[in-house]
## 1
Amino acid sequence: MPVRIKATEDLIPITDLRQNSARIMRRLHTERRPFVILQRGRSAAILENVQEYEKRLERLELLETVVRGLEAARKGQVLDNAQVMRRLRKIAVG
């Protein structure tokens, strides 16, 4: 499930990031929540744990695949079970 940013805890001024980068990186890895980096009081960037970022990309790719499949189904571009099995056999045989 996606993690929501907590406005009271997850907003970090860029000067704090510069001065306390080690502490912020520890929080990033233990809490596994993204942080919003503020520059001049406005959101400028998101700082996120690499593993969480990769999971987010995987979920996005899966959702995009589902959307493409639904679009294909809507257009009638579907295969029945027998057609799928024939294609799989061709792939398996080579």
Note: The first strand starts at residue 11 and ends at 13.
## 2
Amino acid sequence: MATGDAILALLLPGPKHGYDLKRAHDEWFSGLRPLAFGQVYSTLSRLQRDELIQVAQTETADGPERTIYELTPTGRAQAQGWLAEPVDPNGPGGAPADELIRKTLAAYRLNSDPSGVVARQRAVHLRAMRALEPERGAPENLGSSVTRDHRRQHLDADLRWLELTGERIRNAGPAEGAVHLMNDASPPKEQEHG
């Protein structure tokens, strides 16, 4: 549920309506394909059906009616879990590049330990690469060798990308407007203005 997880992450800082979510997605993940409005609203419907989000309020002032969505406690926990869980490099087709990018950038924008996200992902990729080593004395065949080489090259490319991304994050400093997230499933506390 890559798009759904990204939308849940976009709601971590606070409630938003569909148009704001689409704009935030396209800004946060500017190098990826922009979301279509239809995709945003169908994903919101699915997330609401699954009780991961709920309607916070409906605004009707100055224009069309806008439904504002917020995370439920279950949705908040899923979004935070998604950020903490590395992408499986052994899935069909390897680690989905868009998910790696979204997760890393979301962690950066949310001030949710982006360096830790990169480090955990790197560790998972290194384990996957070690698991590709053939057993000593095991017979080799062309199919196994070619498949293993392909997987190893993709993992190696991901590892190089993770290294470069970690360096870019360290050099970038904090994200503008970053929100620090709690480690538990409770909503962030609002600051008092006085």
Note: The two ends are 41 Å apart (CA to CA).
## 3
Amino acid sequence: MKYQIIIDREAKEDLRIGHPRQVYKVIEKYIDTSKNNYFILILDGASFLKKIHILDGRKPIPELINKIFKEAISINASSIVTAYSSNLRNLKATDEDVKRIHELIESGKLLRINVLDHLIVSISGYYSFADNNLAGLSKDEVWPYKPV
């Protein structure tokens, strides 16, 4: 099974995602410093990457949540990891970030799609919500990502 990158390109090998460092390595080359993007990594039940989808990060949150789960449902995802690219150097989560990701997690629960982590990324690195126990995500429960 191969995974698809940004809808139209396939990778040459399977990739099992087990740590935020891997998530960052996968999306690092797609980080555009001139704009903010939202990345969705769609995983199967064994945490193998099925697809990466990139959305415009300037869209309203409800619209982003709808698009995220529409994409995940369309390929029968078991879980997702999301990331937001910031053109700022500050990789810390704000209270608003935590609130939005908590809403995303709750929406996923209704659809039975686990949100494993959310990362804030830039060219200088990443900040993992699960690593920092934010928005109800806990590294003890997710790292390495557990097969569903």
Note: The CA atoms of residues 38 and 55 lie 5 Å apart.
